[in-house]
Amino acid sequence: MGMNVGESGGDDEVVSAINTTPLVDVMLVLLIIFLITIPVATHTVPVKLPTETNQANETKPENINIAVNKDGDVFWNMALIPDNETLVTKLKEEAVKVPQPEVQIRGDQTARYEFVGRVIVACQRAGIVKVGFITEPPPRG
């Protein structure tokens, strides 16, 4: 496509032609993008994805409930655990039971991850196999 350059004459003609070069460039780019992305969207491996199930977990009496407050204090049921080594010792006593009890951690929403992470490491050191987290169910509606 060409471009009209005014002559040095003095004829003031109005050019009524529309320059379609930018339109063609944009359309070619869109065509290339669609040609590349459509096969990716249509050629995926067919799998049946699992559906979400949110079942209430029953707390058994043999489960160990550990709570971590926002300041990092660790509570075994309602008793304060003074340090991490005491927690590991108590968990080792529970780890040898058959069947091994599950540790359920209730972490405060504003607690730093480090505090909950210490409890998880203590469970690992003690040999606890199953650790779960207690959360608040989402509001209905």
UniProtKB/TrEMBL annotation:
Gene3D superfamilies: 3.30.420.270. Its main location: membrane. The keyword Secreted does not apply. The keyword Cell division does not apply. The chain crosses the membrane at residues 20-41. It is a single-pass membrane protein; Single-pass type II membrane protein. Keywords: Cell membrane, Membrane, Protein transport, Transmembrane, Transmembrane helix, Transport. InterPro entries: ExbD. It is found in: Cell membrane. Belongs to the ExbD/TolR family. This is Biopolymer transporter ExbD. It comes from Chitinimonas prasina. The gene is exbD1.
